[in-house]
């Protein structure tokens, strides 16, 4: 089972997705089988739907960058710990998305790509090196293709 808790910090989100919790619940179920070490686990994570102000504050506080960005991910465990965890209930971490950085044309499609990207950071993917970027991008496309069919 996979569970996402959604927190709305910016009211503009409701203009594009009337019920973000329901919307995300209908899509996150496709995640567990995409990541091998999460199979047979009960996983949860949170998504905060924010705006420029909230994400800039967090970006400055935790990354020392005084600017707005599209997505921030705060993994609870690193990849090595996640792979070794024996317990069945796992909290992955938090994702914060910026409403103002999502392209308004095809909003839901761009929203899906962004939260998937954030989720992959929660499960240990990085993209500082080209090889890591291509590997992560491949996973993003795989998950997005499953969600897009929904």
Instruction: State the CATH topology.
Output: Collagenase (Catalytic Domain)
Report the portion of residues in β strands: 15-25%
Any idea what the CATH superfamily is called?
A: Metalloproteases ("zincins"), catalytic domain
Give the strand order of the largest sheet, numbering strands 1, 2, ... along the chain: 1-2-4-3
Total strands: the figure is 4
Taken together, the total number of domains comes to: 1
| Biggest beta-sheet profile | 4 strands, mixed
User: What is the element string, with H for helices and E for strands?
Assistant: EHHEHEHEHH
Helix content: 40-55%
Tertiary shape: globular
Q: What's the level 1 CATH class? A: Alpha Beta
Mean pLDDT comes to: 89
Radius of gyration: 15 Å
Could you give the distance between the termini? 18 Å
What is the tally of helical segments? 6
Q: Outline the low-pLDDT stretches.
A: none
Give me the secondary-structure category: alpha/beta
């Amino acid at each position: 089972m996979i569970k996402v808790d959604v927190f709305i910090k910016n009211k503009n989100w409701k203009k594009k997705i009337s019920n973000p919790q329901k919307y995300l619940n209908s899509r996150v179920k496709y995640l567990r089988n995409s990541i091998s070490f999460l199979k047979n686990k009960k996983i949860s994570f949170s998504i905060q739907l924010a705006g420029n102000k909230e994400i800039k504050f967090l970006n400055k506080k935790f990354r020392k960058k005084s600017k707005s960005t599209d997505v921030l991910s705060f993994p609870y465990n690193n990849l090595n710990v996640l792979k070794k965890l024996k317990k069945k209930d796992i909290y992955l971490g938090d994702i914060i998305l910026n409403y103002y950085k999502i392209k308004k044309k095809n909003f839901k499609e761009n929203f899906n790509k962004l939260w998937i990207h954030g989720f992959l950071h929660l499960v240990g993917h990085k993209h500082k090196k080209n090889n890591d970027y291509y590997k992560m991008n491949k996973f993003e496309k795989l998950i997005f293709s499953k969600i897009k069919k929904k």
